[in-house]
Amino acid sequence: MKRCLLFATAALGCGMLFSGAAQGAELFRDEMASGAGWGVNANNADSAATFGYDYSADGIPEAPNSRGGDTATSGVKLEANISTGTLSVFTLYPTGQNFTGAYQLRFDVWTNYDVNERVNGASAGTTEFIGGGIGYNGTNADVGSGAQILATNEGGSASDWRAFADTTFLAATEMTAGTRNGEDAYYADFLTGVAPPASQSQVAFPPGIAGTPGFQWVTFEVTTDGSVADIWIEKPSGDRLQIVTIDEPFSSDGNISLVYADFFTSVTSRPDLTFGVIDNVEVSQIPEPTAIALCLLGAGVMLRRR
Predict the structure, then answer these.
(1) Which of 81, 88, 91, 213 is the most exposed place for a label (fewest CB within 10 A)?
(2) Which UniProt keywords apply (predicted)?
(3) What is the CB neighbour count within 10 angstroms for residue 145?
């Protein structure tokens, strides 16, 4: 009995160590409090990235992966197609970074929009997209470099969840749900509609759109072994949903990217309510599979010695 307990304890320790890249070595982390060390590639000037934005002023709670301190509710505020009514997209990237092999990208996402316009105004909304990915080439203003994922803020597109492998826009059938539409139960049951923060004075309107990350923190996660990328989203509770496995050819070596876009011509009448926030960007190394075997081998040695 003692031997079983000893082996189980050792094996559990190995499992905790290698259960995910979050347990691996941290390669990069930024709480988005400053734009120093970040580059921006944009297709036009009608966009904005405000680093160090105190999102608590909008009634937004602390992001789930913040570590506390003075910057706990500080991130980068993202805005696109602010006034011109033209397609607007831009990519943020940490300058001088290059990641190779097996690694994982995680970042906290919040999206905001005008509920009255989207829900009560019988409008398709001013649909904007937020996301990012790995294998970024450092030059593209938009998606089309590496493995990337985008999601709408308020479900105004039939393709609310979009995945890309370099220049390839993955077909709906390649998504885990078999569809890109956020109204599908696969997404909507996981991301139920959430009402805006009370301080935004939108409480008189119905809760937001199900199947999108509007008005709630969601952590985006992209994990690669160098050839395949698995993309998940995670709630603050720890509940997780797989979005897609990208096994089409893509460039995994390179930088990371954070993307914000408006692919449509509509301009919101409430730019103060239409934006995205990203916080707590982290890249971690994934331990080699052999390391797990060595850990379990050590557990076996412990058992024999016991």
Answers:
(1) 81
(2) Signal
(3) 25
